Amino acid sequence: MKFRERRWGISESQVTPERLLLSRREFLGRGVGAAGLAAGIGLGAGPAIGAQASGGAALAAEPNPRFRVTDPRTPEAEFTSYNNFYEFGFTKDIVRAAARLKTSPWRIVVDGACDHPFEIDVDDLLKKVALEERICRLRCVEAWSMVVPWVGFPLAELVKMASPKSDAAYLRMETFLDPKMATMQSAPQYPWPYVEGLTIAEATNELAFLAVGAYGRTLEKQNGAPIRLVVPWKYGFKSAKSITRFTFTAKRPVTFWQELGPSEYGFWANVNPEVAHRRWSQARERRVGDDERVPTLMYNGYAEEVAGLYAGLGKEKLFM
Ligand SMILES: Nc1nc2c(c(=O)[nH]1)N[C@H]1C(S)=C(S)[C@@H](COP(=O)(O)O)O[C@H]1N2
Ligand SMILES: [Mo]
Known about the structure:
Blueprint: H1 2-9, H2 17-30, H3 34-42, E1 62-68, H4 76-79, H5 95-98, E2 107-112, E3 118-121, H6 122-127, E4 132-139, E5 144-154, H7 155-162, E6 170-175, E7 195-199, H8 200-203, E8 209-214, E9 217-218, E10 228-230, E11 243-249, H9 256-260, E12 284-287, E13 293-295, H10 303-306
Parallel strand pairs: 1-4, 2-11, 5-12
Antiparallel strand pairs: 2-3, 4-5, 5-8, 6-7, 6-11, 8-9, 8-10, 12-13
The structure holds ligand MTE and molybdenum atom.
């Protein structure tokens, strides 16, 4: 097991797969323009620990006792300062760049194969749902993890409002597209906007959640304000931030990460400690906060709730 130990011994920047993949594309000569690079990476230069961006109004919500992991919560300052949000830069330090995200007004389109397509402002959407608090694990494919008290509502509620048609097998989700606001989006070789997808069965599983807050406050911009997905049994990249469109479709969507690296990132991306990423083990994870290395759990600890969704799908690449 010497090999694995060596792996853990190397510096985090070397194990940051998503970033590596992006920079590899730069080397291929299809890279980000110099201006984009300077803006996206340069802006995030200062130390961001403890930084408080705009937003963060108090947001009361009843704790849902059924979704409360007992692991220690990640300190809020870590959650709000150690981020992946590639629209704003390829480092973890994007707080300042993300301050440019304009979250109000925020229009959401719900369309595609459904009986009740609609368009709504996020504030009006929130009048139609009951908010609750859930404490969930978040496991990034890069082998770090957090435990986050989210505030939001089940994604199933939104699905119900739209009333999908019988041929709608998937829910496709799309993040904003505004290169003036998000500098990295002016790099045309990336498949912006950020796209993610779930099967309807996954989207209506009670664990699939739309978060509008965390730690008792509205979401910070860097965490995907004003509304983001939380799919706790899948690798973090499935939990798309700052969503503007939900589309019901018969066709499986090709996601942002699939498009960039189909041999490393798939549609399903369920957490499984026994299935290594092409370039590193997924057996353990680094808990952001105390930096302890702890074992990764099957479906990130949610096997009981979701394993049944994948019965009979053995031929699919369920764990990448
Ligand atoms: N739109 C968008 N959503 C995104 C990402 C992104 O780059 N853009 N990164 C994903 C990844 S890789 C992770 S691990 C989580 C990180 O969420 P956090 O920064 O709130 O912890 O957001 C996911 N959602
Ligand atoms: Mo991630």
